[in-house]
Write a structure and sequence with these properties.
Strand content: 25-35%
Number of helices: 13
Number of strands: 20
Shape: elongated
CATH architecture of the largest domain: 3-Layer(aba) Sandwich
Largest sheet: 16 strands, mixed
Number of domains: 2
CATH class of the largest domain: Alpha Beta
CATH superfamily of the largest domain: Zn peptidases
Helix content: 25-40%
Structural class: alpha/beta
Amino acid sequence: MVRISTCFVALLLMATVATAQKKVNPKKYAETITAADASKILYVLAGAEMEGRETATYGQKKAAAFIENHFTSLGLLPGNNGSYQMQYPVFRDSLLSSQISVNGTTFNLNTDFQPILQMSSSSTQFFSEVVLVGHGIVDEGWDDYANLDVMGKAVLILDGTPEGYSSKKKGWRAPGGMYGKIGTATLKGAAAIIIVTPGFPRREITPLGNMYTKLFSPKQGAVVYNISPAVAEKIVGQEWSNMNKKAMVVGKTITAEVMLELNKKVQMLNSSNVLGYIEGTDKKDEWLVITGHYDHLGKKGDVIYYGADDDGSGSTGVMEIAEAFAKAKADGKGPRRNVLFMTVSGEEKGLWGSEYFSEHPTMPLEKVTADLNIDMIGRIDTERKSGDTLNYIYVVGDDKLSTELKPLSEEVNNKNGKLTLDYKFNDPNDTEQIYFRSDHYNFARKGVPVIFYYDGMLKADYHKPTDTPDKISYDLLEKRARLVFYTAWEMANRETMMKRDLELPKMSRQ
């Protein structure tokens, strides 16, 4: 009798497991993803009791607990070092007081000026002069800062753009827009940015500023104020009324005693991602990640922004797919690779949750075969053209980072999904820049191949209180979630990880 080594037995068992996995038909588990189950989940997740799930609020935390309970009920393992939640810090400014005085005259908050709270630190500044920089534009063939030194000084900027100015640069950071002007003044070293804007008196500034995640910075920026023309006239003097503000205004230094005071308190908050995973068999050092964001816009007064499609539908898909994999695991037919199911918060604020995960991953990202991200899969795009099939899903990013993504995706769909895969948003010239606007991008920028599943920009209900669970097409949600499951099944069980053989595309500056 030949003696068989322990090592040989282990290898034989691993081969047997791998062979068995390849022969498993996942249809039985895909069919556990149903419209009825999705409806039950989504009516809770996008219900009034979740208060719109705004990041770092009571509603978001309640939603996180609901998702965590679902993961634990399935027997998923905690995905963050023994915890189902990954906490990350969030900060919010609370305005205490603010004041502007010019040459001894004090002006009133909201009536005459407003600070831009998130861009400004608490400070009291006393300037003996202010540099008028016209419209504050620096662009090809145009420089309002020519021959002006504004380092450490207060700059006064006119609103809008002058006659005769045009730019090829578009978008919110264009040189003639407010953020473009602020960016230019900051680069020039200004200590205070004072922008003359119309519309005063204004509604009372909210005592709470926008949330943010970066509290510490190697360099503190300028304070930023919007002021009324009355304040500007007090700074500039008689010349203000004779100035042609629609034309190019030549910059100059103005003698004026200007006091700017801002006093705010920083609130320390937190939010979380919810993570659970199924352990793999013979490839448990490798991972597949399935994501969707569960946060939305919260409440404005008594009005709830339910976020049923955006992205209650995607989070529901993640939860349903997790259940399908868990049932396969319970039957002894679990995946070869670990599969992490993660719902993230902070997406609506700027992809915060996925960014935090990408900077604090719970596994080596080079061991992640792919991220499948689901953001809005429950509705039909109102912008689809006449004659377009409604049995579709937009697939984004499958032509990027890996040449293996699209062939695998299409093969799985042809065999199991039978959906029309629409590649509209893969266009590098996509004006919406959809590829860069959901959580998959924080995996892509780290080199992880991604596929993003999306139903389109529903202009009638997008980011409105009318995005409610009664408007979801649950049968279509079921089809789309099953397609993601079948794709995930193939990725989790194939012999090799997805290749990484294409470069990350860069965002187009529209």
